[in-house]
UniProtKB/TrEMBL annotation:
The keyword Transmembrane helix applies. This is Peptide ABC transporter permease. Residues 107-308 form the ABC transmembrane type-1 domain. It comes from Thalassobaculum fulvum. The lineage of its organism: Bacteria, Pseudomonadati, Pseudomonadota, Alphaproteobacteria, Rhodospirillales. GO terms for biological process: transmembrane transport.
């Protein structure tokens, strides 16, 4: 009986993963069509961005013929998509090197920054959210709630300037830029990470607090308390797992924000990450870098949502995917 239930659970999981994979592929296909139509529909416009505004019609015509831009639109899209699938994103018109040589290191830098933010923000937010939700309406709850709302209400660029004013200009404890010219320096990571944590942790804290407060009012928690189960065991074994379901979604969404939504912080601290690369490509009309950044951002967004759905099942086995 148990073996049959395990097989059924495994089968349901495989079906779910297959559906999510199909959703991922379909979404990426739709996005690729939209990106191609928006940025590559007019071959003359592409040639002008690559060769520059001072190129003449003859030069653009020669470039389009040499690069296959005179072929029919479906042929161009198939070739463009095939190149993307093998990692050939084209040549950057800004940096004069293949896009992959710029994109991958910048992705690594942003991943490092995002990892630092998550390692600080998630434990802090969950701890404060649990402490707040355990004693709803208390002084502890109100203090944490006010602090969370206050920090989240201040945009990250304002937090960054505030931190620079204190720790760079006034105290002189930390460097004001994070360009890592001399190699990795953890001191240069402190201010960008702190600015992002100040802005992002409050929302997770509030979500955790609301979820925890709701769980603490359920019958099974009250029964455990009346039976004399120690409060620590009630929180860690019974309440916390169910309370993490809603914050888990918010945490996964933070990954998308940390990839391309931190342009201001990367620009403020001269941090060479994915967001600053996207900004620089947009300002310089580097069409192939913009295309690559767009596709990577969508892939990460859909991928993290898939991981969030999988995480639901482990946090709450009662959830069924269809």
């Amino acid at each position: 009986m148990a073996a049959g239930a395990a097989r059924e659970a495994n089968r349901a999981m495989l079906i779910f993963l297959a559906k999510r994979l199909g959703y991922l592929v379909f979404t990426m296909l739709v996005v690729s069509i939209l990106v191609f139509l928006v940025l590559e529909l007019d071959p003359g416009n592409v040639a002008q961005k690559v060769l520059g505004p001072y190129s003449n019609d003859e030069q653009r015509q020669i470039w389009m013929e040499a690069n296959g831009y005179l072929d029919p639109l479906p042929v161009r899209y198939a070739r463009w998509l095939g190149d993307f699938m093998i990692g050939d994103f084209g040549m950057s018109t800004r940096f004069k090197v293949p896009v992959s040589e710029i994109l991958l290191p910048r992705l690594g830098n942003t991943a490092l920054l995002g990892l630092g933010v998550l390692l600080v923000m998630v434990p802090l937010a969950l701890l404060l959210g649990v402490l707040s939700g355990m004693k709803e309406g208390s002084v502890q709850d109100r203090t944490i709630s006010v602090f969370s709302i206050a920090t989240t209400s201040v945009p990250e660029f304002a937090s960054g300037v505030f931190l620079v004013g204190i720790f760079v200009l006034w105290l002189g404890w930390l460097p004001g830029v994070s360009n890592m010219v001399g190699g990795f320096d953890i001191a240069q990571m402190v201010l960008p990470v702190a600015a992002l944590v100040m802005y992002g942790f409050g929302y997770i804290t509030r979500m955790t607090r609301a979820s925890m407060a709701e769980v603490m009012q359920t019958h099974y928690i009250r029964t455990a308390v009346l039976k004399g189960v120690p409060q620590r065991q009630v929180i860690m074994k019974h309440a916390l797992r169910n309370a993490l379901i809603a914050p888990f979604t918010v945490i996964m969404l933070q990954i998308n924000w940390l990839l391309s939504g931190v342009i201001v912080i990367e620009y403020l601290f001269a941090y060479k990450g994915f967001g600053s690369l996207l900004l620089e490509a947009a300002l310089n009309k580097d069409i192939f870098v913009i295309e690559a950044c767009t596709m990577v951002a969508v892939l990460v967004a859909v991928g993290t949502q898939t991981l969030a759905d999988i995480g639901y099942m482990y946090l709450n086995p009662r959830i069924r995917f269809s």
